[in-house]
Amino acid sequence: MIRIHNTLTGRVESFVPMEPGQVRMYVCGITPYDVCHVGHARCYVVFDVVRRVLRANGFKVRYVQNFTDVDDKIIARATERGIKTTDLVRENIDDFFTKMDALGIERADVYPKVTEHIPYIIALIGKLEENKVAYRLGGDVYFSVKAFAPYGKLSKRPLDELQSGARVDINKEKKDPLDFALWKESKPGEPPEASWNSPWGKGRPGWHIECSVMSMKHLGVHFDIHGGGLDLIFPHHENEIAQSEAATHKPFANVWMHNGFVTLNREKMSKSLGNFFTLSEIFAKYQPAVVRYMLLTVHYRAPLDFSSDILEQSRQALSGLRDAVARASRVLQKQEFGVDESDKPSADIASRSEALVQEFNEALADDFNTPAALGVLHKLISVLERQFATNTVSRGSVRHLLDRLRVCAEMLGLDLFSFMQGLFIPPEVTGYAQEREAARVRKDWKEADRLRREISTRGYVVEDTPHGPRLLPKAGT
Question: Is the pTM of this model over 0.85?
């Protein structure tokens, strides 16, 4: 039985899906106004592991992750650079997929965009007006927080203690400071591609309404798991609950999961503070697999204090795992040691490995305890390495341990077996990267995307840099 900490109840609870054998999960995605940083990596590695563990426990998972492709920050950055918002969005979504692929993060089933859901957003706002929980102010539409009695149930704070958070529009004419925008009137000088006709005039959606619409569109009005970073609890997720349940009069998501902050010197890492690291900067010094390992060393709900020390420790630990696997592979190829040709593991090895696999599975079933799971992975490696201390190594025992290691590592998204591919890049992969760059120059995005997929199927991702494309081996299998 999988147990998950539910932010809504404040407890670790046994997970029971709404539909037997099926899990519907929505995770808030990026606002693609800039390149990806280590905070993004943490969130999406966390929920990649969640999906892998659910799947390993027999569930079929439908995973939806959005792109907020219209936003004040996108408009400001595109204006600053003198480009269209659509070009900025494409550039940063491309960067997102490159980095997430490199980290071994499996693709979501659906990546909905706000701009693809404008009619549904307008319809939901209209429903909120009909239910008398939304009101107009000129060309803007606001949600009336006091019209939704349970407001604050996720953040566990009463209305009189809540403060307007970042990205909550400040408008002195609002009925209440906490009321938030559902629809925002277009301002003079804003790009035409970031504006749509509506019953309230030309404008665009507010930040929160989009996730309610996209999750309900692709998962239904009531689904199993909603996830995101800790900073989204208030106001974003609180507001999602309010507008969704006020519109449908049904529960929204049963389980709310939130990963902890990435900190630097124990201070929250953020773009606004200027104390964050892009994944390009980190990948220039450390393999993506090392970054993924580092992110797994801390429980997902705890803060992760980022430093070169933790990266170096992770590099050494991952190298130790891979060295042991490589040595065992040479044993099976009869390149080292005397080899006992028996294909069956010894009774002792079979018993010990199965006990460790059970311990591994129990760690992940207990609110996705990846640090404990990594500890068990190292125990399995220790058992494997003890096989090398004898004059004759049991081929069956080594193969059995490698099989168990492969299954466990896959659940964590760690590739311990094909990492050597990164030492030599096949010429056809380099050729695809060059062809893709040519397609990007002529703005043939369809061909560029096709070539990126070709590169990915061969175990690599291509990163676009000011000096041209750079190939990276994928972190996961």
Answer: yes
